[in-house]
Amino acid sequence: MTALVLLDHEEGRIRKSALSAVTAASQLGDVHVLVAGDVAVARAAAAIPGVAKVLHAADAQYAHELAEPLAALIVSLAGGYDQIVAAASAVGKNVLPRAAALLDVQPIPEVVSIVDAETFVRPIYAGNALATVRSSDAKKVLTVRGSAFDAAPAEGGSAPIETVVPATNPNVSEFVAVHLSDSERPELESARVVVSGGRGLQSEEKFHVLEPLADKLGAAIGASRAAVDSGFVPNEFQVGQTGKIVAPELYLAFGISGAIQHLAGMKDSRVIVAVNKDPEAPIFQVADYGIVGDLFEIVPALTEALN
Amino acid sequence: MKIVVPVKRVVDYNIKPRVKADGSGVETTGVKMSMNPFDEIAVEEAVRLKEKGVASEVVVVSIGVQQAQDTLRTAMAMGADRAILVLSEESPEPLAVAKVLKAINEKEQPGLFILGKQAIDDDMNATGQMLAGLLGWGQGTFAGKVEVADGRVKVSREIDGGTEDVSLALPAVVTADLRLNEPRYASLPNIMKARKKPTETLKAEDLGVDMTRRLTVVSVAEPQQRQAGVKVGSVGELVEKLRNEAKVI
User: Residue A234 and residue A197: Cα distance in Å, rounded?
Assistant: First the structure.
């Protein structure tokens, strides 16, 4: 069996969650990857061990990974594959269900475990339950949750690169602009350490108190939905059911009460630290280490103690 | 321009879901049910577009059991003009829902479908994309901002590292993310008024749609619970634990 993995990328780098999708697909059989966009990304894809072939969609219509042309391309290539796989990233979640509909397949989103070629485990109800589902579709279309599979190594392979023939562009969509947060920090979903703030940070200004600590730990900064809704930080910082799902080695939660929807986004972290002034905050029920106290004293003290 | 907004009846977001003892699913009997929160945002956006004069009519559709009637009433109390209830078993799969909506499109010919980006029960996040695919239309998923002008819709989409703006030819499909708007509460007079608004009831099979499930649920289980750890008394103690016990720094 051979799987085709849509390998999405940002600013010329393959997403870590896409590398996790390669690992997941390799549990099903041989792996071919599809790269839409820059040739440098296709070359990087060719170096992933375990990738047997890179399909490169070089045509300009694929440059921004728009769903409409990309889904059409996947459908044109799908005949040779048993599975179509992508990370459950913004790109994967946008493109794959569309391709699945065109293939008359019910997609299986956010897979966290592969039981066999027909059977997959996926969280439902914000991760409050895990459903094991068996697909009767001849072809499987799935997105996989990055935090549930190790990322494939970036170096060591040397797969051939084949330029694919463009499919007919439905021509119903145009890319206008992209606005990415400038950040020297690691990507939230692939960071080893995440420092997160909640409503307890009180304001956009005060949220900056987390930065020296994040610098010290080489951490990404995250936030609860409450902090995002209060305008302390932009949307893309949100960790939770409707934001990013993270599973770092170390997750530090400051002033986050621990709503179910936030826990859904971080409870698979290896070590969780919670700092909250409310000793009854639900976050303490999942934290390995907790401190009850004022985060505005504890964060600077912790930053200092790491010197 | 007519806007169609599909809405789903789900377990209320304030209720902690309970896995059934036999592992066949999540308990929904005797549990408070509400409109999927993302669908409320979709209804609100459509009603606002009508209030701005961009849309002429807002039609809400629910595909499911008879009780989805309540969900449609809520949407009409928020400002939707009329409703279509398509009877089927509870919580059909996105592929089947997209096919029903495609049939609704033939009947209603809207300029825009606005959907919630995902339902909080099965967390599929697929129906809007699938509908757009079946119709061959553009899709503005995870919308944080929607502007209709000159026969196109510009959608600011929430993506992993920030936002992306796309421009779609109309008709198109938009799916609402969390921050598109804050849905209004239906006022009592509007709830009363909604009772007089018309609801048409159809059957999925009358629309010629095969609702057969492609996914069989083998089992549903509670995830492994994390054990609460220890509370430490000082920053010094925390650093010591992280270094020597957890070995993460």
Answer: 12
Q: What is the CATH number of domain A2-163?
A: 3.40.50.620
The CATH number of residue B234's host domain is 3.40.50.620
What's the pLDDT tens digit per position in A170-224? 999 999 999 988 778 888 988 999 999 999 999 999 999 999 999 999 999 999 9
Min Cα distance A163 → chain B (Å) is: 25
For strand A129-135 and strand B215-221, is the pairing parallel, antiparallel, or unpaired? antiparallel
Residue of B nearest to A95 (CA): B129
Domain range for B109: 2-245
pTM score: 0.93
Neighboring chain B residues of A218 at a CB cutoff of 8 Å: none
Over the stretch B81-140, which tens digit does the pLDDT of each residue have? 999 999 999 899 999 999 999 999 999 999 999 999 999 999 999 999 999 999 999 999
| Chain A, nearest residue to B125 by Cα | A93
The answer on whether A225 is annotated among ligand-binding residues is yes
Cβ contact B5:B39 at 8 Å: yes
Minimal C-alpha gap between A194 and chain B (Å): 12
What whole-number distance in Å separates Cα of residue A97 and Cα of residue A105? 9
Specify the domain boundaries for CATH 3.40.50.620 within chain A: 2-163
To the question of domain A193-305 being in CATH 3.50.50.60, the answer is no
The C-alpha atoms of residue A259 and residue A295 are separated, in whole angstroms, by 18
B61 touches chain A (CB under 8 A): no
Domain count, chain B: 1
